[in-house]
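User: tokens in, sequence out, please.
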């Protein structure tokens, strides 16, 4: 009877030890209609929509921005799906890959829009940054 009790406790212990590893294998799927990355309020798609709206982009400019966004997403997907890269290397490559697309976006803007765009970039995706020292 004592052996059965010890065996039961050992089995329960092994199950409890293995449970986190089983759950860690597959990340939870995002809700339907939501992208796999960028789930916060500053999602790239939302930022671009807000920028287009605030800059007053024409239909032609919006179409050009959308094409640039699709090309950038394809390039980012290649980097993100490369399992040989460490997370830090992926971040570095994503930053480097973003530069030409950012330059293409800027080339679509007129001088007035470009000035406003630069101001928006300084403020960040969630608006102006607050000075932590003055809180």
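Assistant: Sequence out:
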């Amino acid at each position: 009877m004592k052996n059965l009790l010890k065996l039961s406790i050992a089995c329960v212990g092994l199950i409890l030890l293995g449970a986190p590893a089983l759950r860690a294998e597959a990340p939870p799927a995002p809700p339907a209609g939501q992208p796999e990355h960028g789930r916060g309020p500053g999602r790239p798609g939302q930022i671009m929509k807000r920028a287009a709206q605030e800059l007053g982009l024409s239909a032609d400019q919006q179409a050009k921005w959308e094409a640039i966004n699709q090309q950038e997403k394809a390039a980012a997907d290649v980097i993100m799906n490369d399992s040989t890269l460490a997370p830090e290397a992926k971040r570095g490559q994503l930053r480097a890959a973003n530069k030409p697309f950012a330059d293409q976006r800027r080339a679509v803007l007129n001088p007035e829009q470009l000035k406003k765009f630069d101001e928006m970039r300084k403020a960040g995706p969630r608006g102006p940054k607050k000075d932590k020292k003055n809180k």
